Amino acid sequence: MALAQLYLSMFLAFFKIGLFGFGGGYAMLPLIQQEVVFDNKWITVSEFTDIVAISQTTPGPISFNSATFIGYKATNTSGHGTLASILGAAICTFAVSLPSFGIMTLVVTFFFKFKENRYVLAALYGIKPAVIGLIAAAGIMLINGFNFIDYKSWLIFSVVFLASIKRIDPILLIAIAGLAGFILY
Question: Is the pTM of this model over 0.85?
Fold first, then answer.
């Protein structure tokens, strides 16, 4: 695939993800997976799982982090060099953030004028179940779709979950879970 065509495909895919990914990064995961793993085959299911794990532990929104990594990986895998891959990462990150920027600009401009409007309130109430469904789909996808759940994973999950209920520092829990995963696997 020609580099310009790849860039355009990645831009359109991530623009679409950004445009229809209501509810934040976790709600976008099923859309990202469909676009990059199944439709365009830029990465494998295993690589997608790794991206999700890495994107959760790095600073920033998961959608931006995954877009950056996928843009780099897809460009690099298609035989282009480091500079082209960095530009691919930038294009995907820009594309996934562009719809949110545009929508938020419009929302801020008009929200205060219409915040008590019954149609606006009804639309906001209607979006909530869709967002919950997309986040639940992302969780189910991660549990069922990737065959990474075994007793060691459940053990790490259980310990971290119980520790988080006790309000132990999340950064410490991430570090401990990473170390436990390194030792157990």
Answer: no
